[in-house]
Specification:
Layout (H helix, E strand, L loop, with lengths): L1 H5 L5 H11 L11 H15 L9 E2 L5 H12 L3 E4 L2 E4 L1 H10 L5 H14 L4 H11 L6 E2 L2 H5 L2 H10 L5 H8 L3 H10 L3
Parallel strand pairs: 1-4
Antiparallel strand pairs: 2-3
Helix pairs in contact: 2-5, 3-6, 3-7, 7-9, 9-10, 10-11
C-alpha cells in the first residue's frame, strides 16, 4: 500500500491511467495513444455512471487536462514511457499496476477492460465519431464533430461492421429505418 501512496495512485486519474495501460486490448496490445486512453477513460466513466476525473468538452470533446498532467507525472517518475507515439507502462509501472489491481472490484475492472477493448483498435476518426454520438455532450465545443458528420454514413457502417454498435443504433444515428440501414449494407457489399 505504501508504494501506491508514494506514487499518488490513490488519485483516480493516476490509478485508472496505470490500470488501463496495464490491460490488453482485443489484439493483446497494451499500448495506447493519448486520444485513445483519454476516450477510453471517459467512456469508462460513462459506463460507471460516475465522475472521478475532470473532463472538458473543449476542442476534441471529452478530454481531460487532469489526465494529461498525471500522464506527465507518471512519465517523470518512470512508470510510463512513450514508445513510437504510444504510451506503455515501464517494468516498474507493470509491477505497480499488479499491486493496484486488488484495490478495485471485479465489476470496475471489467468495465475498464471493456472500454479499452471497445475503443482501442478504432481509428481516431471512428473513435471520435463513436464518442460524439454516444455522449452528445462531448460535441458541445468540438472542432471535429461537423467534419465527421459529413462522413456519418461511412463511419457508422464501419462501427457496425466492427461490432461497436448494433443495427438499431446505426439506424438511429443516421436517422433512417433499421431495415433501410441493413439494406444499405447489402447494397454496398458489406
Amino acid at each position: 500500500m505504501c508504494t501506491i501512496l508514494d506514487y499518488g495512485l490513490d488519485s483516480p486519474a493516476r490509478a485508472l491511467l496505470v490500470l488501463v495501460l496495464f490491460m490488453d486490448d482485443r489484439q493483446g496490445q497494451k499500448a495506447m495513444n493519448k486520444l485513445h486512453f483519454q476516450k477510453a477513460l471517459r467512456y469508462f466513466e460513462h459506463l460507471q455512471q460516475e465522475k472521478e476525473i475532470d473532463f472538458s468538452n473543449f476542442k476534441y470533446g471529452g478530454v481531460s487536462f487532469e489526465l494529461q498532467e498525471n500522464l506527465e507525472v507518471l512519465e517523470e517518475i518512470g512508470l510510463v514511457a512513450k514508445v513510437g507515439g504510444k504510451y506503455v507502462l515501464t517494468k516498474e509501472g507493470e509491477e505497480i499496476a499488479k499491486e493496484l489491481v486488488p484495490h478495485y472490484d471485479e465489476e470496475t475492472l471489467r468495465k475498464l477492460r471493456y472500454a479499452k477493448h471497445h475503443l482501442n483498435d478504432l481509428t481516431d476518426r471512428e473513435l471520435l465519431f463513436f464518442m460524439y454520438m454516444t455522449l452528445p455532450e462531448t460535441r458541445a465545443h468540438s472542432i471535429e464533430f461537423e467534419k465527421l458528420k459529413a462522413e456519418a454514413e461511412n463511419l457508422t457502417r464501419k462501427l457496425f461492421v466492427k461490432g461497436r454498435i448494433n443495427a438499431r443504433t446505426a439506424a438511429e444515428w443516421l436517422g433512417i429505418d433499421e431495415k433501410e440501414f441493413l439494406n444499405s449494407l447489402a447494397a454496398c457489399g458489406q
